[in-house]
Amino acid sequence: MHKPESPDYKRIYEDLVRLKYPAKKQECESILSKPIFSVKDVITINNILFPKANIYNRNSDMKRSFYYTDKVEKENLINSDTDFEVLFYLHLQRSLLYQKLGERVASLKQLDEIYDRVIQTNNAYFIYLINWQYAGIYNEINKKKLALKHYKTAYKYSKIYRENKNNLYRIDKNRLSNSYKTSPYLGGMYLELNKPDSAKIYIEEAIQNEKK
Fold first, then answer.
1. Hey, which of 42, 152, 163, 182 has its CA 20 to 30 A from 174?
2. What is the 3-state secondary structure (H, E, C) of the chain?
3. What pLDDT does 102 receive?
4. Per residue in 2-33, pLDDT tens?
5. CA dihedral of 88, 94, 96, 101, whole degrees rounded to 10
6. CA angle 128, 186, 196 (to 5 degrees)
7. What average pLDDT does the chain have?
8. pLDDT > 60? residue 1
9. Cα R_g (the chain), whole angstroms
10. What is the pLDDT of residue 3?
């Protein structure tokens, strides 16, 4: 049976603060005291440890922000032996940054580099997220069939995540809310492809989901 998720953000960032940034321990205390880190916590603590990344991001200087957001991995504090969830979100963040820059080939490459490993985890939420990101990029470059393919895969795994058979996945409010995005997007995609009957199914489902 597939093991439940065991993210190890706490150990990673405790070591990072202790070894590299002891002067910032107090600033990070409220996050480090948490037993489990969310993605938001990872982004917040990265902004504390690497404030220049946040400055460059606000100034839309995305390329310069890569240096700082990648610093943890480059110093081998996060590598292929580290908890995969951390590595997964680093790639996903880079993909999003490249997408914002309009560098969609580079954005797709970030996803390609980890896709097989994501599938191997059998983690429904990760598989949902990476396919969601693929779909968004393909939709932007007008590859509608590929976008539809990935939206459908994302939809499938978002439902598997919510069903959570055998309690394999960590269910929290943010992830649960995020997993409902696929229905309206599938509806919109089918409308673009001039398939109103299929669109209606997902639009109605999205309306029902809003009532939950």
1. 152
2. CCCCCCCCHHHHHHHHHHHCCHHHHHHHHHHHCCCCCCHHHHHHHHHHHCHHHHHHHHCCCHHHHHHHHCHHHHCCCCCCCCCHHHHHHHHHHHHHHHHHHCCHHHHHHHHHHHHHHHHHHCCHHHHHHHHHHHHHHHHHCCCHHHHHHHHHHHHHHHHHHHHCHHHCCCCCHHHHHHHHHHHHHHHHHHHHCCCHHHHHHHHHHHHHHHCC
3. 86
4. 333 434 567 777 877 887 778 888 888 888 88
5. -170
6. 160
7. 79
8. no
9. 18
10. 39
CB 151 within 8 A of CB 186: yes
pLDDT score, position 63: 52
100 vs 90: CA distance, rounded Å: 15
- Average pLDDT on 162-175 reads 85
Q: Which amino acid is at 69?
A: T
The token pair at 75 is: 């110093």
Domains of the chain with bracketed CATH: 1-122 (no CATH), 124-212 (1.25.40)
Long-range contacts of 39-45 (CB under 8 A, 24+ apart): 39/89, 39/174, 40/174, 41/9, 42/9, 42/86, 42/89, 43/93, 45/13
Q: Pick from 119, 116, 131, 121: which is nearest to 6 by CA?
A: 121
Residue bearing tokens 């990760």 = 126
Tracing tokens 């820059």 back to the chain, one arrives at 101
